[in-house]
Amino acid sequence: MQAKCCFILTVPIILVVAAIVFAGSPDIINNTADFSHASGKLGNFRALIIGIDEYTDPIIPDLKTAVNDTVAIGSILKKRYGFKVRYLLNRQASWNGIDRALRQLVETAQPSDSVLIYYAGHGERDSQYKDGWWIPADAHAGQKRTFFDNTMVQKAMRFLKAQHVLLIADSCYAGTLFGQRTRATPATITDKHYLSIFNDKSRWGMSSGSNKPVACHTVTLPEQRTRTTSSKTPEKYYLSIFNDKSRWGMTSGGDEPVADLGGGRHSIFAAQLLKTLRRSTQPYLSTFELFRTVAPVVMNETDQTPICGPIRGTSGDRGEFVFVAVTPPKPKPTPKPIVHPETEMWRFVKRFDTLFDYNAFLLTYPQSKYAPAAKLRLRQLRRLATASSPQPTFPTIRRKKITNSLGMEFVFIPAGKFIMGSHKDEPNRYGDETQHKVVLTKGFYMQTTEITQGQWKAVMGANPSDFKNCGNDCPVENVSWNDVQLFIKKLNQKERIAKCQLPTYRLPTEAQWEYACRTGMQTPFAFGKCLSTDQANYDGNYPMPDCSKGEYREKTIPVASLKANKWGLYDMYGNVWEWCQDWKGDYPSGLITDPLGPSSGSIRALRGCSWYNYAGDCRSAYRHYGRPDNRYYGVGARLIRLLP
Questions:
Q1: How far apart are CA 496 and CA 351, in angstroms?
Q2: Contact partners, residue 224, CB within 8 Å, separation at least 6
Q3: Longest Cα separation, the chain
Q4: What is the pTM of this model?
Q5: DSSP strand pairing (9-17 vs 114-126)
Q6: Tens digit of each residue's pLDDT (9 = 90 or more) over 349-396
Q7: Could you tell me where the DSSP H helices lie in 163-322?
Q8: CA distances from 530 to 44, 547, 550 (A)
Q9: Do residues 559 and 450 lie in contact, with contact meaning Cβ atoms separated by under 8 Å?
Q10: Residue pair 500/405 in contact by the 8 Å Cβ criterion
Q11: What is the pLDDT of residue 324?
Q12: Which residues, 6+ apart, have CB-to-CB distance to 591 below 8 Å?
């Protein structure tokens, strides 16, 4: 098991906030029928999800599970518990980015809202002040002024005009957020332990060190009740703790290191948290129910001691955050039998039974178990063929636009040269955007839109998108680089058979993408120095400096809904990130011809920004990255088609 902490610690934190501070009071919900999202009386459930795997300072080690944890948590909160989710991932989670996001929550949260913040990244302990920091993506090792002080989080919690606070920290030394008083689960967890807590009544309490009661009290939980334990119904119990404000926290450990791995693709604590949130079949789940399910497993599998208590420096009442389910979990569908692409193509080849089809199959799968049969049939067809038999020919005319059998439209991008990267004075630029000259010696066809959900389903048979309700014309998202490679392989096979051509689809290189995006412009955007929300789907609350604010749609929209660039390409900025072919790598300083990026690496390039990003992240030169097996609901792709 890997530890998250060495020089710097890993801190996944969920911060669920809802408290009344200065202005206004939420309406008391007296009727259990109104205790649902459908009633519209609960207030908004909002989530700010912060995850950092990649740090700009090479001394600070990168993490493996932080972003994966955050994306998974955000997805279940949105789908199962009705949260509106916003992400800050990797370089978006800079010191300024985190501060700006917390301040926006303080500015916009309403008294009836419930706000959740999940932080996953490095953290460090202040041994002098007995406090701690989050380590933002742009931090410098050893320079505490570049760290994000936990007292800033406490201030945000104190001033939020909302109702409940639950801070869940999967972190090394996370107890600094709680002060001296903590709570731990029993040291040994067995079946007898669960039977004992089920059969006995409970009336728990916790003090912050004064005579004033605080939020970390416990009552008999609904699933533990017998006919005589309480006169309250479970619904009224949840209603009573929801109507009182609270400031709660939960951690995966106390004053010790915690694991970054151990839960598959998640930390152990995050894996148990996800499992509990997903598997709950009840309409309500309280904070302490969540804690008592997760903590025993973590204790048995690690040396960590989960704790629960009030957040230091905040005020709360006797309430408790309640996760209110939108819909009960659906049973998993019976998986369809998987047909290997090689077998699928062989079936089509035998059906069409032409020289071209068998040649195409052998080019694609020269070592296939079907290769001997393909070669035999190829010889038979050649003997039968006459000199006058028409043979397939390939188009040489470069039309401005072409459309394939799925309706995917491609526009011709001519060969040319341009200056790649950004000028040193461009607002919001990063150091990896070094300007250099690039020559592209070959033209190519680029898809005019991002791959749509309808196109993905037509090739793959399923739709992985988080925004399925958006429709077939919306971009497919929640797809990894590896997923897109399989899509491309199947699309190439499908087009070869259906059109008797040899189209070659693939992802664009970073150079091809930026060249097509810029359309000859050296300004931050092909549209100029500013980017309006009539030109791109992004978070219009955060435009470029000296530019006007715009709309924040908080979701994807159908492709080609907004203005195209001069070459007829839509949504090159916003809507979803777009995978590129390249591995992550540094730019050269001089002229380069037809660059392909590094020959190997661990993370792949992404371009174009998403619906949840700021304008600065949408610039033509901005570079983003992700592991090839990672899926996010803000990431899709567009293809290029090479010339024959």
A1: 14
A2: 197, 198, 202
A3: 101
A4: 0.48
A5: antiparallel
A6: 787 677 767 776 776 678 889 999 989 988 888 777 644 444 433 333
A7: 191-199, 234-243, 268-279, 287-301
A8: 32, 6, 11
A9: yes
A10: no
A11: 92
A12: 436, 437, 438, 439
